[in-house]
Structure prediction request, 224 residues.
Amino acid sequence: MSDALSEDGSDINQDDSQEDVMTPAELIAKLEEAWLNEKFSPELLENKSEVVECVMEQLTHMEANLQRVKKGDAKAGFHRMEIDRIRFVLSSYLRSRLQKIEKFFPHVLEREKSRGEGQPSLLSPEEFAFAKEYYANTETYLRAVALKRMPPNLQAVDMLKAVPEPCLDSFVFLRVKEQQENILIEPETDDQRDFVVDLEEGSQHLMRYRTIAPLVSSGAVQLI
Prediction:
């Protein structure tokens, strides 16, 4: 990331908050990381809409470049396979998110509603619209096929209670990207005690998701 310089070489850009520029390889690595985390986490994670948009733009450029390759060039096949691979990862990532929204829609909307100021959004605008529409359609369907035929005192339904929450106590495999110290591990049984562990960079572990959820959000660990 280069600074803007005046003609005499002095720095004319004093803004420290300059935008980081990623290479295409770094961008695809970001997408793959988001994909694996979303695929293996039991809950819906923070949306990565900026990464998705950049990858879609990158795919458009790659398709345009592929059109300029001469017919019969062996490189064309490899470029096409790479484009298809990226499209698969992107589609799988978005599909995983939609499946979780459908499965946990009232809890997803409640988390988005209770999000504090300055906290990152859980849903993209399109996902938020989809979740609200899915909620409304589910309520309409339940009233049409079941609730209207029940006694008046049983016609109300609390979606937050009716739909199961994500199981944050499920176990996940992870790889440590940044060393972590004094991670508190909760006991599995009543006769065990809490204990702390250090996670060495590059090590792999099987741990309860609830314990390492903040580390997934911060990027300190990668689900695998």
In short: The longest strand covers residues 171-176. Residues 1-19 have pLDDT under 50 and may be disordered. Strands lie at 171-176, 180-185, 195-199, 204-208, 221-223.
